[in-house]
Amino acid sequence: MVILIGNQKGGAGKSTLTLLLANYLTSVHEEKVTVLDMDYQQSVSSKYEKAKILENEPPYEIVAVDLAQFPILLKVLTKSPKEIVLIDLPGKMDDDGLIPVILSGDIILCPFNYDEFSVDSTLLFAMVVQKIHSRAPLIFIPNRIKSNVRYDTQMEVERVMSKFGTITPTIADRIDFQRVNTLHTPTIVLPAILPILNLIYDNYIKKEIPE
Ligand SMILES: Nc1ncnc2c1ncn2[C@@H]1O[C@H](COP(=O)(O)OP(=O)(O)OP(=O)(O)O)[C@@H](O)[C@H]1O
Ligand SMILES: [Mg+2]
Which ligand is nearest to the CA of 180? Predict the structure, then answer.
């Protein structure tokens, strides 16, 4: 199965969420995972190459892929029904080459923040994605949420977003998230993240993966 992680908004938490999910799926559920880094800046894959030098057996591969290589790579990876492919999407959705990438998604995860600009770009992302691939469930994940976020702002945002998909509980803004890397999720962030990852796994992933 293919899981897309995207949002037009830079810094929404796409790469962090990709790594959290990859770490979770491999360590908690012993799933077979490959991460495709389609971000033009290729931040996750370059960090991975550095981390790999220190590790004998990385729990999953992270591969930097461009749009031209994507179809063939996807074909190879999805030959195995147990394989879970996570795709860290580019921040810009202005390339028609992205259409097959969007269409390949079984579910689409969209981390976002409650600030005005973030919500606007998140809605734009949701509209584009829904237009291309209306059948894939869209799951919004409020990320980096400060404790002072206004309740009415939150309610209004969630009301609009629920027209496009589901909204998970929020992930707090915590400095420890900056220590999430390709091989390890700091234990301290687990209580904040596990309820959300469990929810996504139980409701959307488990049923797609053969025993
Ligand atoms: N819940 C959180 N609390 C605190 N910091 C966070 C949280 N989630 C992500 N961050 C930090 O925010 C920054 C942006 O996150 P990340 O790189 O995951 O976003 P992105 O959407 O991949 O960005 P880009 O558009 O640049 O690819 C990173 O420094 C990351 O460590
Ligand atoms: Mg990123």
Answer: 1
- Strands 138-142, 2-5: pairing is unpaired
Could you tell me which CATH number the domain at 2-208 has?
Answer: 3.40.50.300
Distances (CA, A) of 41 to 75, 136, 139, 183: 24, 26, 24, 20
Is the CB–ligand 1 distance for residue 15 below 6 Å?
yes
Query: How far is the centre of ligand 1, averaged over its atoms, from the C-alpha of 123 (Å)?
Result: 19
Residue pointed to by tokens 């994507």: 70
Pocket-testing residue among 177, 180, 181, 193, ligand 1, by greatest number of atoms within 8 A of Cβ: 177
pTM of the model: 0.95
Expressed in angstroms and rounded, the spacing between residue 23 Cα and the centre of ligand 2 is 16
pLDDT tens digits, one per residue of 46-60 = 877 777 777 667 889
Cβ atoms of 172 and 147 closer than 8 Å = yes
Write the pLDDT tens digit of every residue in 150-203. Answer: 888 899 999 999 999 999 999 999 999 998 887 789 999 999 999 999 999 999
Taking the domains of the chain in order of start, what are their residue ranges?
A: 2-208
Q: Is 174 in the pocket of ligand 1 (CB under 6 A)?
A: yes
